[in-house]
């Protein structure tokens, strides 16, 4: 069979068209795709529980999947129930918060008046004009919030159902993939599935550990400076920290507001800011590189761009899913010979401890490369493992 060689510009054009089409489909179908992706990741986490119940306790897969999903839901519901009760107590202290907040606002107005020669009336006029300009935006924000809330409620119903179905149909989906790939390459497909499962599982467990560490560190810091609801605010900070960039900012504002339930002292607000900054320094410089980034091996540029693209396409959910999706793409690219360069582009250029095994797919013949070129030496990998195993527990 004769292979067709196309110019690099044509190949790049096909790749860009595929990327644009994929992004468009993801944007249009995000209400369907995002719950499915979240369910896949949750199923990967819960799969070891189903495997244990099936192979060691001899419980049928369906019953094991029900137990795993129910346990997962119980933990989630328990955490959010505790948070909701604590938030109710904070709301009950709203009068104290309002009084203490007014004290800080008065201090700020006095500072502005003394340093910028703006009277309190001029400041109020300026704030009122700004408020008028933001009324229409506020209405739009309310509409978006209501839509997001309804979508969230729908996802809370669909995601457990999807997760359960994925757990019981795991082997069915694997058999589907084996029918797409030539039998001689089934062992490469099996390697890809194992690596994807390991990468996603490690990343999500890394996020959970990071969330726990941030929650504990924040709670301890808030307790030291005397914040009334230190534990629940620490937990909220850890959860919101899962949302890249904006999560920790929102958590900081919420913590500052909640700190006003106990005192109007400005030092308390400063202490909250210091605690959040210190925890973020520890998180970004120690926890993220050690617990999270080491699990996916994606460079910082690809991570930031991926998060921004995910946010533009699907909001907060897209930002959360960006890193594991990039990690999965890297696993696939590293094992497809003519996409290996893209896998290298996403990677962090760390020394490799083993050679990749490539999944051979129909591709163009790069006849311009000689056997002695560095690129050809990099891609000249032989496959030594030969098995048709497709079952992954």
Q: Give me the strand/helix succession.
A: HHHHHHHHHHHHHH
Largest sheet: none
Mean pLDDT: 75
Number of strands: 0
This entry's quaternary arrangement is single chain
SS field, number of helical segments: 14
What structural class do you assign from the helix and strand content? mainly alpha
What's the N-to-C terminus distance?
38 Å
Helix content: over 70%
**Radius of gyration over C-alpha positions, nearest whole angstrom:** 26 Å
- Show unreliable segments: 141-146, 351-358, 360-393
Instruction: Kindly estimate the percentage of residues that lie in beta strands according to DSSP.
Output: under 5%
What is the general shape? globular
Give an overview in words.
By secondary structure, the chain is mainly alpha-helical. The protein has helices at 8-28, 30-55, 61-92, 94-116, 120-133, 135-168, 170-180, 186-224, 230-240, 246-259, 266-296, 300-334, 340-346, 374-379. α9 runs antiparallel to α10 (246-259).
Summarize the topology.
Elements lengths: L7 H21 L1 H26 L5 H32 L1 H23 L3 H14 L1 H34 L1 H11 L5 H39 L5 H11 L5 H14 L6 H31 L3 H35 L5 H7 L27 H6 L14
Helix pairs in contact: 2-3, 2-6, 2-12, 3-6, 8-9, 8-11, 8-12, 9-10, 10-11, 12-13
């Amino acid at each position: 069979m004769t292979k067709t060689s196309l110019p690099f510009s044509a190949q790049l054009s096909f790749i860009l068209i595929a990327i644009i089409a994929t992004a468009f489909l993801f944007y249009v179908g995000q209400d369907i795709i995002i719950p499915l992706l979240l369910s896949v990741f949750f199923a990967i986490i819960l799969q070891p529980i189903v495997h244990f119940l099936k192979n060691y306790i001899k419980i049928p897969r369906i019953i094991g999947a029900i137990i795993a999903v129910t346990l997962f839901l119980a933990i989630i519901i328990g955490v959010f129930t505790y948070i909701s009760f604590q938030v109710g107590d904070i709301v009950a202290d709203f009068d104290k918060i309002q009084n203490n907040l007014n004290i800080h606002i008065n201090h700020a107005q006095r500072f502005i008046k003394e340093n910028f020669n703006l009277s309190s009336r001029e400041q109020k006029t300026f704030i009122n004009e700004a408020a008028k300009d933001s009324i229409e935006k506020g209405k739009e924000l309310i509409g978006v919030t209501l839509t997001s809330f309804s979508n969230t409620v729908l996802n809370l119903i669909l995601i457990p159902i999807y997760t359960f179905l994925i757990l019981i149909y795991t082997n069915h989906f694997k058999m589907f993939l084996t029918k797409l790939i030539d039998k001689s390459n089934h062992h490469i497909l099996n390697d890809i599935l194992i690596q994807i499962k390991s990468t996603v599982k490690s990343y999500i467990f890394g996020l959970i550990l990071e969330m726990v560490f941030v929650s504990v560190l924040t709670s301890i810091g808030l307790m030291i400076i005397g914040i009334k609801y230190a534990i629940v605010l620490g937990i909220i900070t850890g959860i919101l920290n899962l949302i890249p960039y904006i999560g920790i900012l929102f958590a900081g504002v919420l913590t500052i507001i909640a700190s006003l339930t106990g005192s109007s002292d400005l030092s308390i607000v400063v202490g909250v800011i210091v605690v959040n900054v210190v925890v973020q320094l520890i998180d970004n410089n120690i926890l993220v590189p050690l617990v999270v980034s080491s699990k996916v091996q994606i460079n910082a540029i690809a991570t930031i761009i991926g998060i921004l693209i995910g946010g533009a396409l699907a909001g907060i959910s897209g930002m959360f899913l960006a890193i594991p999706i990039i990690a999965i793409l890297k696993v696939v690219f590293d094992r497809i010979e003519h996409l290996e360069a893209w896998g290298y582009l996403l990677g962090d250029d760390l020394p490799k401890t083993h050679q990749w095994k490539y999944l051979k797919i129909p591709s163009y013949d790069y006849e311009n490369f000689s056997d002695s070129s560095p690129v050809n030496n990099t891609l000249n990998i032989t496959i030594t493992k030969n098995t048709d195993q497709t079952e992954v527990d």
